[in-house]
Amino acid sequence: MKENTPNDETSLFTKKVSRRNMLKTAGVGGVGVVIGASGFGGLLNLSDSKANGQTNDVVPFYGTNQAGITTEAQDNLYFAALEVTTDNKSDLIQLFKDWTEAAAQMTAGKLVGEASLNTSMPPKDTGEAKELSPSNLTITFGVGPTLFTKNGKDRFGLKSKKPAELKDLPKFPLDALEDSWSGGDICIQACADDLQVAFHAVRNLVRIGRGKTIIHWAQTGFQRTKQADSQKTTPRNLFGFKDGTANPDKKNSSEMNEHVWVKAGDGPDWLVGGSYMVVRRIQMYIEVWDRTILKEQENTFGRHRDSGAPLGMKNEFDKVDLEAKDKNGNRIIPEDSHMSLSRGDGKAKILRRPYSYADGMDPKTGSLNAGLLFICYQRNPSKQFVPIQERLAKNDKLNEYIIHRGSAVFACLPGVKKGGYIGESLFR
Length: 428
Known about the structure:
It is built from nine helices and eleven strands. By secondary structure, it is an alpha+beta fold. It is found in: Cell envelope.
């Protein structure tokens, strides 16, 4: 899947933009979008269709932990939450086996299925990623609370293995959640530096799941591209502020073990090496924000917009002093600012991995339908995300400009070794 090399920077920019614009409209949610009626049928026979060349944009699928969590965030996201329609546990296990093999091949830059000249049959691979590079594709799988029990039913004999932390989030003040953007039995997070590659991954995994799964909701996401920001600065959200400054250090294994990876004793052993993913679809009132003066914007976030520095400081990563006061005795960083409330006492940390979205116009208001697909990872949601969000939901000045439309929690499975399959520890 080698990416074509354009003759000049202009043509490269045009190709990237055209791909992105073509697929942004795919971020449409809907309960019960039917994918098909028959299973994929056994393990895949996969063929390498990658052209000569690039190997430096491959993120290995196999490992102790799943890729796509501490991996450097790619330019684009395609996220899908699925409902499981089969009642057969063996079908579900086979699906995860098929997905494992397909995901390993696609992240390596290969297409799904043997090439065939039989024009009377659909091709095994949908074809839109042919000749494209792997683009640092990662595919991350998670399972939701409803995979274990739904309407009081133990669906696959897994009820006893459901972690206490795997549950719907409490309802927070000002939430306006919609079923069409919430929940899911299984999630697939595909991230890549090319949106067409990410979409191809989810599309083909969903295709493999015919007769066993249907899409519950799906969303595309983007951030600034690596080409546009060669310095790899902290990405900015659609309000123009840096997002992710306070993340724990992904390269520090002790911090990741403390805040992100599930450890022995945290719950069921099958999730050790995994992590809990919280997803919140946050709509931004773009037009209202655009009419707000800069000083008010900065007081809302608690940071300077241009530098990302805490108010009163010069640099993005300068030490935060929430008690600092101006000459009039007022706190420099307002108590109701987003940073002040999200930080709290500084002990509860989450690994933020958000992506912006833009889905055209909101038909209800005639305004831009845009915002943030907030994704974060943690070891214990009830001790990390929940207390943070409880503070934000009650007092965050940012609430004047946003509203939460979707919510979901997933247990992201541990990594897998070659010869095994994703979710194997759960089904033992």
